[in-house]
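Incident review: delayed structure delivery

Summary: a single-chain prediction request sat in the queue longer than the usual turnaround. Root cause was a stuck worker, restarted by the on-call engineer. No data loss occurred. The affected request and its eventual output are reproduced below so the record is complete for anyone auditing the incident later.

Affected input:
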Amino acid sequence: MREIISLHIGQGGVNLGNACWELFCLEHNIQPDGTLSPEKTHNNDILETMFSENPSGSYTPRSIFIDSDPDPIDQIRKGPFNKAFHPDNLISGKQDFASNFVKGNNTEGKELFNKCEDQIRKVIESCDNLQGFIFTHAISGGTGSGFSALLYERFGIVYPKKTKVGFTIFPSPKYSDTIVEPYNSVFSLDTFIRDAEMIVAMDNEAVYDICSAHLDNEIPSYSNINRIMALAIASSLSSMRFKGGYLNTNLKELETNLVPFPNLHFTLSSFAPFIPPEKVHNKQPTITQITKAAFDKNYMLAKVDPKVGKYVACSLMYRGLINPWEVTNAVIKMRKKLDFINWVPSGFKTGINTQPPVFIPGDMAKVKNTLCAIMNTSAFGQILNSIEDRFHKLYNKRAFVHWFLGEGIRSELISSADWEFADLKRAYRSLEENDKESDSD
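Output delivered after worker restart:
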């Protein structure tokens, strides 16, 4: 048994985490009070990976929800799964961090960390063989960026051998939650470069477009968006939660196959298929069709075009009763169409989990087979370009900088974060440039 602890930080991370546990409980037939459904059969489940069993026989999620603003945590306490979560694992401050990274990372964030440090340690010590942590958080606000960065940094010191994977909501290219989000994003990425093992990028705009284009939902709510993201997260962890399957993986193996160099651990994700509920009786897509869709920009969970860039590695996680030969044939066809770095001999890590996917009723039609793809590609540079452009428009005028300086950050640290960000951008660009040089040789 190898346990995973999930931490959901800030308003965006808490809401996404709530959607994830709604889906996890459905998949494992755990009722809102934490008890197993009477018709439960759990021969294929590895419940202890994500849940801890209580003496009463009920199950508690191995999760911690943290936000400086009490309102999102109060919504969890009052929600349908309030009896399933351990009350001590729902931690809130007195007020939000005012969309300020420095508050979340340094001044008020350290006070919040002191408040939750003991409870985090208790959850970790309850594990027999902890494999790592997953984070859900956004990097636009103060808590999701600053406090998450503080946790990554502390965990990197105290638990250096445990894998830390972030399912991270990046700023949307066209829509902004707050004016200062470029600052928060650059500051947090400065920490993630050093202290995270892998970051999976998502954004609300891309998932919003998926809902309107593929699910006939013209005005999706944040709940709809979070449930789509939760589907991808649940699929990427399915082989760690269920026994049945081929080539199952764990967090460390996922990292090993996707991260070629320590700093190039920022990845993109996609999910397929998306079928609206009213088309539930339509013909099911083939494995080849699902595989092709996963590399289409319209199925990406971040607003990027994967064709504008080169692939380094891809992890393909299929779910359903799938013949491995179908996967092999689909991957061979897809490999010929994708532009990989020329020093990568294969590029694909595939896994099949025979546990069928589960969907929240009403959001999308139930399908027999799904695919979640996580890919390391230089196309991630498109996200960096968008953030950098907006950062420099503000920082060149020193606009809003006084809010961060007032919390104690020094101006040279802002410049240092900008340099680290530029180095990351150059690293992804150099993948393509070095590849071109190899081709010319």
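Verification: The CA atoms of residues 173 and 386 lie 6 Å apart.
Action items: add queue-age alerting; document worker restart procedure.
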